[in-house]
Amino acid sequence: NGINKAVTDYDAATLITLKYRNAFKVNRNFSIIPSVNIGAAIADSLPFQHRYFIGGANFGENRQIFPFMGMNLMQHSDYSALVLGCDLQYEFHRNHFLILKYSIGRTARKVETLLNLSNAYQGIGMTYGYNSPIGPIELSLMVSNNTKKVLSFINLGYWF
User: Fold this and answer.
1) How far apart are the first and last CA of the chain?
2) CA 35/CA 103 separation, integer angstroms
3) pTM over cut 0.85
4) Greater pLDDT, 58 or 66
C-alpha cells in the first residue's frame, strides 16, 4: 500500500508511472480505499507492449496495467492513462467482506488530455471477498459506461 512510482527509459521513450492505493479505517468494520493510477510515455512513437492499459478488476503488480471496474483486462490502451478509484469495504463477518468499487478514467495520446474527465469511462462493481488460508478469494460483478454489460471476475489467491 502507499505510493509506488517508477521511471523507465527506453531507446526513444521515457515511461513515468505513479500508483497510489491505501486503506483508511472509518471504524472496526468499514474502510475507504482510494486509488490513483497515472502513467505517461514521453515518446514520438511507442511499441504497443509499452503502452498504458486500463481494464480488469485486480490490482496486479504490472506498472502499465491499471485496474478498471466494468472492463475486461487491458481493454483500452494509449500512450498515457489515468484511473481514479474508490472502494468502500465492509467486513460483515470475520474475514468476509462486501466491497463497492468505483472507477473513473481514460486513456489518451497526450497527458494533458487525461485531465478532461467530461467524457471519461466510469465503472462500478460489487465484490464479495474472503480472506482464506490460501489467500484472498473474490467474486465480482461489474459494469461500465463503456461495455454496458455485466462482467464477472474471480480471483483465487495472491498475485505474484
Assistant:
1) 15
2) 9
3) yes
4) 66
- Phi, psi dihedral angles at 156 (to 5 degrees): -125, 110
- Name which of 123, 120, 117 is nearest 67 in CA terms: 123
For 151, the 3-state DSSP assignment is strand
Locate the DSSP E strands across the chain.
2-9, 13-21, 24-25, 30-43, 52-54, 65-66, 76-78, 80-93, 96-108, 121-132, 135-144, 151-156
Q: What are phi and psi of 23, to 5 degrees?
A: -100, 135
Mean pLDDT computed over 42-60: 86
* Short-list 14, 13, 16, CA closest to 4: 16
Distance CA 114, CA 121 (A): 11
pLDDT category at 160 given cuts 50, 70, 90 is low
Mean pLDDT of 101-129: 93
In angstroms, the CA 159 to CA 86 distance is 21
Query: Of 69, 149, 140, 150, which is closest to residue 102 (Cα–Cα)?
Result: 69
Instruction: Report which residue type is found at 142.
Output: M
